[in-house]
Amino acid sequence: MSEDAAARLQDIAERVRLCQECGLYQGTTNAVPGSGSATADIVFIGEGPGFHEDRLGLPFVGRSGDYLEYLLGLIDVHRDDVFIANVVKHRPPDNRDPRADEIFACKHWLDEQLDVIRPAVIATLGRFSMARYFPDARISRIHGKPRFGGSPVTAWYPLFHPAAALRNPGLRRDMEADIRRLPDLVAEVRQRRAQQQAADETPTQLSLF
Ligand code: URA
Prior knowledge:
Helix content: 40-55%
CATH superfamily: Uracil-DNA glycosylase-like domain
Number of strands: 6
Bound molecules: uracil
CATH topology: Uracil-DNA Glycosylase, subunit E
Largest sheet: 6 strands, mixed
Structural class: alpha/beta
Radius of gyration: 18 Å
Low-confidence stretches: none
CATH class: Alpha Beta
CATH architecture: 3-Layer(aba) Sandwich
Distance between the termini: 45 Å
Strand order of the largest sheet: 1-3-2-4-6-5
């Protein structure tokens, strides 16, 4: 099953590398499909590749990536244990914000990846990925507050972007506290999934008068 999932992620990545569905691929060195485990409990979604990510074809390998790895270390998790992706798969020129039409064009790739991985927790990093699940929300209000839904049950978990915490050290305490909650959140989703499965398997009682 996991080999199959890994092969499916690989297939998606190969198709992402050929993608010209918006103009962002122009002038880039590499697409950045995402990387990590096909059976990850946690998927992190950032904004878009920057200079270093474009060079290597891997997400979060610059300063933000170093900080994300430090954060994961706080909960004894390595980046290979999770899956890391972005809302757009090619680097926006000069690191500008991705536009709504580019995010829309790219959306189906992330949908396909999430459909393969089916993580317990989808952790959004910053406002662009947060907007996928929490439209019109303010990150300063909702960071660290999970919402549960879907089938199988999933926790959508909004976090600050690592670059924001690097720019503004005042955010780091909150960012680190939010990260430390992840293991409990994964455990909670597992429990809810088990309850959901048990309820689905319980035959409904037929009343025989
Ligand atoms: N910032 C992001 O949002 N994504 C990356 O891959 C790197 C930096």
